[in-house]
Amino acid sequence: MKAIRVLQLCFLWLLVSAILLKSADCHSWKKKLPKPCKNLVLYFHDIIYNGKNAENATSALVAAPEGANLTIMTGNNHFGNLAVFDDPITLDNNLHSPPVGRAQGFYFYDMKNTFSAWLGFTFVLNSTDHKGTITFNGADPILTKYRDISVVGGTGDFLMARGIATISTDSYEGDVYFRLRVNITLYKCY
Amino acid sequence: MKAIRVLQLCFLWLLVSAILLKSADCHSWKKKLPKPCKNLVLYFHDIIYNGKNAENATSALVAAPEGANLTIMTGNNHFGNLAVFDDPITLDNNLHSPPVGRAQGFYFYDMKNTFSAWLGFTFVLNSTDHKGTITFNGADPILTKYRDISVVGGTGDFLMARGIATISTDSYEGDVYFRLRVNITLYKCY
Amino acid sequence: MKAIRVLQLCFLWLLVSAILLKSADCHSWKKKLPKPCKNLVLYFHDIIYNGKNAENATSALVAAPEGANLTIMTGNNHFGNLAVFDDPITLDNNLHSPPVGRAQGFYFYDMKNTFSAWLGFTFVLNSTDHKGTITFNGADPILTKYRDISVVGGTGDFLMARGIATISTDSYEGDVYFRLRVNITLYKCY
């Protein structure tokens, strides 16, 4: 009689195991969102070259539509202006705080009827806390308070990172300076 | 005797479990392709600024090689022409259908001996069906009927999307208008 | 008595299974790095247009900061120069070896005080060994011997590839030619 109970127990376990295995399946149709494995809040500071600030500028226009020059942002909400940048990253919103890395990449304004940009850039981090890079791509509807862009890759501490960054404009001064707050949430870490 | 049979049964189960576990392993050398979790077919429409169509244009050349201007595509299969765009996305092939979002990004022609481009752009979708972004990167050998580019990220409904988009040129009119059909297949959804 | 031993054995197995299942969980906080599933070492060759080498050039400057032209690299470590390219890929370091594909994309120099670039490009491979594309994004601190950039996507044989590429400058000749060795390590293959 005891043997039969054991037999029943084993079959029960068979059932439970099968269900558990299914939930662990990597290839299921739709997956539950994993818990974030890393969260970083960083700021970066962009000082756009305007013909007079060569020493301080961290970015410069390098392309613009027909008829525009490269020291004055175009009308039409800067449509077509493309800048490359090498901006300091700080832990707080102070431009003069010790940088923990550089934000390097490009952005361009791509809407005629409102301020909107597209970003492709890499955070190159080199501090005691973080060594490695995170690369981002995505549309940036500047006038929206919080907008999400995609983490598309990473190296070093952020090898093959996956996730998003929530960007907000922390401050700006005309067409010369802006500061972005970047709240990075990674869902895959190695 | 029964007890021994139960013992055998348990060992058999041990074996089966081990095999199942191995197949569920996320870290195996080569994984079976998961089933697609989302499929979208969308069209986007690009009207290139040529100096005369400022009102209708949705894209503009902002860079070109030495000697070229930005209202006429270069010879050499447009080699070196870089455009930024903000194009309407529609569910069918009609430019005047109600847009379900915007395709925002850039492309450039990068071959001297044939028409070929490289694309970096984001679908910003904002309809009752889909809210979120999908970002794409990749080479676009324009004269090939169907060509695949990579989905490199996503936000909102497409958080951390992975997959490919199969692009085909649905129509074009000289150097002023083209319409791309984009068949997006996502293999990872959350 | 035997039946009780079997019972004990089953419970032991229950415990072991639970632990194994947990380690196979795809949604764990931090995952062990999977073993590489593909490794490729390839070279690509970039010949920059300088106004005199139209026939051989495989890349051209298409954007530069105010005041610069597009046949001479800017001072300031080429800050702001943006090039588009269609470069041959070879299996060894010989420019004249039969190409196995094309490296297509763009790079720009983005630091004023040292040589550093940002790359966005695709390896379009079409050989007996490999058919498909791999797309890369990332910062390239040129003067560092080995630097990692991100694999952000892939198609064909490299569908949804994930991993990194370790780049090293294999050779260069002034501002006209450079050759990069690219050691690609993929951790996800389908």
Automatic annotation (TrEMBL), chains A, B, C:
Listed Pfam families: Dirigent (PF03018)
Domain of life: Eukaryota
InterPro entries per the UniProt record, alphabetical: Allene_oxi_cyc_Dirigent, Dirigent
Signal sequence extent: 1-26
Location within or outside the cell: Secreted, Extracellular space, Apoplast
Keyword entries, A-Z: Apoplast, Secreted, Signal
This protein's GO CC annotations: apoplast
Single GO biological process annotation from the record: phenylpropanoid biosynthetic process
The protein's role, per its UniProt record: Dirigent proteins impart stereoselectivity on the phenoxy radical-coupling reaction, yielding optically active lignans from two molecules of coniferyl alcohol in the biosynthesis of lignans, flavonolignans, and alkaloids and thus plays a central role in plant secondary metabolism.
Family: Belongs to the plant dirigent protein family.
Quaternary state and interactors: Homodimer.
Name listed for the protein in its UniProt record: Dirigent protein
Highest classification ranks of the organism: Eukaryota, Viridiplantae, Streptophyta, Embryophyta, Tracheophyta
Protein encoded by which gene: psd_Tp6
